Every structure is written in C-alpha cells, then in structure tokens.
Amino acid sequence: MLEESALICRTLLGKNHALHIAANLSLVSLTDPLIAEKITTIVKAAGVDTKYITLEITESAAMTEAPQALENLARLYMNGFTLSIDDYGTGYSNLQQLTRIAFGELKIDQSFIQGFANNEAMLIVVAANIDMAHKLRIKSVAEGVETKEDWEMLRKMDCDIGQGYFFAKPMSTEDFYTFIDNYRNQLLEVSPTAVHHYIKTTTKTNSEFKILIVEDDEFTRNTILQILNSLGYLQTTAVKDAQSAITLFEDEQFNLIITDIFLPDINGLELIKRIRTDRTFAKPNTRIIVLSGLTQTKAVGLAMTLNVNGFLAKPLIPNVIDRKIKNVMSEPTRVQASIAYETINTDIQDILNKS
Asked: pLDDT tens digits, residue range 93-147?
C-alpha cells in the first residue's frame, strides 16, 4: 500500500501537484526494529522526497511507551516524514507524550465533527482541540466534514485542514487526477497574478540567508564555512562555542543555525533548548540543523524533541549540505510552546551514561 501511495505521489508531483500523501502506521508495525528503514527505502525508491509523505498513527498507538516504537517514530521524523495523530479524541491521551514526539498534525476524529456546528458541547471540544494544536504549533485537521455549515464553523476556528464528503467522496486514482487538475484550474482562474506574486515573493537565493555555524573544532568550522561560501551562502558567520552564539544573538538574527552537539561549557542540546524556551535573543522558531557524528539514539531523539529541523552527519559533503539547507528553509518550522521543552534533559554525560 505504501509503495502504491508513493508512486501516486510521484505522478502528482510530475503533474506539478505538490500534494502530501498520507498512509497509516499500526502499533504492530512500529515494533519492527527495521520499519523506519523499510519505509524510507520504499519512498525513496519511488523517487519521492519523504517530506511529501505523512504517516498517520492512531491516538492509542501514539501513546505507547514501547522503546522500539518510540525510536522508530524518532527515526521517521529524522528522515523527513510528517507524523500525524489520527482519530484524536477516541483514545486515552497522555498530554506530555504529545510534546515528546515530534508530531506535525493532530486529526480530530469525525465523531466530534459531524453536525458539531449545532452542538454547543461539541463546539467547545473542537475549539479546544484546534487551539491546543495551534499552541503546540502543529496543524489541526478535522475528519468527517460533510456539510458547508460545519466547514464554515471550522474555518472560523482557524482549523488548518478539512477532510470529508463535503470536499470529495472516495474515488479512483484516475478520477482523482482529473479532480485535482480541475481544482487547480479553478484556483488559477480566480487570481493567476496572486499565484505568481506568491511564488516570486517566497523564493530566496542562497545569498539572502543568514546562517550561523556553532562548532568548536577549528578545522571543521572552517571547512563548513568554505563549503557554504562556495555554494553561495555569503552571509555566514562561525563561532566556536554556544556562549559566543548567545552573545551574537543580542545584535543579529539568523535564518538558520547549524550547531554541533559536543561543545565546551554549554553543549549544543542546551543551546537549542535555550533558543526554543525563549531564553536568548534568537527567535524561538529559528530553524536549526544539528551537526554531529554522534550515533547514540537517545541524543538524536532528544534533539528531535527540541524540534530541530534536520541533521548533517560527518564527513560533510557539499551537495548534501546544500540540499539539506534548501529543504529546511523551504518548509515551515514545527516549534511548540516553550513549556514543552522545559523538562528535557540536555546533560550530555547523563545521556551517554544511559545510552
């Protein structure tokens, strides 16, 4: 099923439809130690970037404490997939767990949506779920939207995405290709100049990005600097420790921070935590790429709970760096409320002892 979905996604991309395809993951599949690798291989073999694939996990499966399942979810996120909580509201949620796993979507179950516009109690429940999703800085998705009245109410609540018969009924792949072609043509007829303006104003060249490198090893630091300059990233600054970066934030803002984990005094994880909890002058939603040869799953998982935007492994390869930066800068950031990061342990030595 995933392979077929990935092939459909590739066809849509070939038709200039940059749509995301969703597939379900069961708790049983998440206990397979190789599932993250298998899924990534299938999607890449189809010629599709993982950013276009959303993996939906039921609320019950999302609440698991099974180490293997949690590790797989971390690896899937690290590989670029969007993780979505499906059928939210039908299971037993540990709200702390929602902040530990890097979910990108929260799908509100259809049992709360159908006819909710005329149900005061359901209005309160749905509004609270949408508000929680937004405060966690993840997308809200309403399942089972069947009437214009319900959809208009959801829009007033700033729900991000609707799913249901109001938009379209299940259809064959070929019918869907026709449906989406017609839908795009309708949008272009409304305001083609607006579409052109959007594309023009949201495209940036490498030289426009301000990048900060935080790396204590002089050779590695200079190597990254040279690579970025050769790729056209001309507004790049490099410092040797986290404190220098924190001081720099008082005068400068950066579009992207590339930091090592192993740094003297204040380590990379602690630096990221301070940024995310608004304890520096950097914007909490600043995009961050972790640069390290560290292979411990625990440390990688902790970096992901801090909602880093990507990883770069040593040794460094110029075209890999360029592709990673372009991907990170083209996607929205997924940052949660600062309170979600307060309890995260960033003690490197403690992490290594427990690995």
From this structure: 555 556 667 788 889 989 999 889 888 889 998 999 898 888 777 889 999 999 9
Check whether domain 2-190 has CATH 3.20.20.450, yes or no: yes
Per-domain boundaries in the chain = 2-190, 206-354
**pTM score above 0.85:** no
Check: CB of residue 112 under 8 Å from CB of residue 89. Answer: yes
Architecture, CATH, for domain 206-354 = 3-Layer(aba) Sandwich (3.40)
The structure tokens listed for 46 are: 């189809």
* Helix, strand, coil content of the chain in percent (nearest 5): 50, 15, 35
| Digit-coded pLDDT (tens) for 48-63 | 999 899 999 876 666 6
- Grouping H, G, I as helix, E, B as strand and the rest as coil, residue 290 is strand
**Residue 113: both structure tokens together:** 């949506």
The greatest distance separating any two alpha carbons of the chain, rounded to the nearest whole angstrom, comes to 65
